[in-house]
Amino acid sequence: MSKEELPLDIEDSYYQHQPILQDFSYFGYYPPKHIVDAQQAVKSKLIRSAKKEAAASSSGKSTLRYKKLQEQAKKTKETIKNERENDIMHMLRILKGPDTEKDDPISFEEIRNLPIDNEPPTSSRSSRSESSITYVSKQQSPVKTTRFEDPKLFSLTDREDLLPPKQKLLVLESKITRLKELNKHQAVVDLRTMAIALTKLLYGGQSVRLAEHYLDIGDSYTKIKAYEQASSYLKKGLMLLTQIISNQSFPKLINEGAPEVLDIELEYQDARKLLPHVLLQCGKCYIDQGLMKEAYGCLKEAKRQVDALEEDERDVTITFDISLQLSYLYTRMQRYDVSLAHLIQAWESKLNMSGTSTHPDIAKVFREMAYVHIKNGTTNEAIENFQKAKKVYEDLGTGVDLLNAAVTSYTIAGLYRESQNLNKSIEFYQDASKGVESYYGPYHKKTIRVFEKFASSVLEDAQARDNDREGLTRAILIYKELQKRKTKLHGSDSQEVAVTLETLGDIEYAMESYANALLYYEKAWLLCEEILGSSSYNTISLNEKRTRTKQVAKQQEEEDLRL
User: Which of the ends of the chain has fewer CB neighbours closer than 10 A, N or C?
Assistant: First the structure.
């Protein structure tokens, strides 16, 4: 990967984790007691070591110093590694104060011993497959993603590059906003890196504006699953805000040498408002990485920081987001009761904020409740919550929301099928098929995938009722339509078409229409022989079916002649 793709390698190269004697000034004017004690202990140890080395050197034991230096270098590397792992926890302790776990229902030590579910939260699940049936947002709709992308969005033009720094920053912000709409996350990172350099030039190296850039880069890297880069930038932003908040006792201007001098009182207030957002994003990033201890610390501190703000200072959306992320965390730790409690809090906060139960986030909460019930093995409650989410989407009524209602029907159908309730499964697969088709059209991969599920459910139901003739006849009609759609999408000589032809042959054979079955088997066999070869298992299996069908058809013909 090139340096252009990872601006972390070139930006702020001075930021390196140091051993325990590093400068901890960012923790505030007075360092924490545990850090001061550690510094004193290391200093004392070094003094004692120096005395011993001096004595050894006077005795001619020159190799002793070399061994000592090797050991010290090894310990320094271990210290750097430990500091890198525990850096976020140090900052959280500084922010929290002495009673860090006083009101927490679960401690850090308990988190270490809890089993962890490796499946990511449902909100972050995604698939590159064009046929995957997933929820979409308005930002992900085809209308958004197919819009024209102006090449000028991805960098500054020669004319824009000549603008004064302040105006250049405004131009960058405008381009970044547009790139976010297009989901061009790497381009957002590139322009944010340019914005960081301009912000430092204007406001110096200690400002809330700089922390905002770090937050946005961390968010972009999280979305493309580059978690190491994301957490690095988010920790930079958190460290910067911690420094501003810790130094708020100094009633003076900061960045006095910069062209734009900042009032520390205003910076302090802005830092307190931004801090929960950075902590929340850190928590999201750590959840995706499976680092539950760090995620738990960040999210609980984010909640505490929000509670500490005045009512008019709070961002009304963040309480909902924190509750949602805490739910994901407890679900991963298999604490389903606590997860549901946080989802109820998220539902209440969104209801109070929006003033209506018809909101996409309300539907999202019901979906997440359903997923928690699936994990807990309570399928009926899961179906009930999915149906609540479906109703919200249907009441919203936009194209994207109706698609999400169809995706919800698809999920409900799968649950009914697993519980052998085939009638309900068919009902919801048919509903899902209509909804997906109205959004993507009849020949899209997603539509065909849902339609195939509908067809197989109808066939399975007929087979479960001793090859019910009415059910099999319905299945034939649906599979013929499926074959038509697959031929349109894949071509008449594709393996997908061969599979459908074989299924049609099986249905006709079950209905004792051997002539029709033989016709379908012949077509499927010829396709498989052409695509997979004569030695393929599928080709051999189809050849056996056509041979058997020929024999049965011949016997039936002979019996008919005798009659």
Answer: C
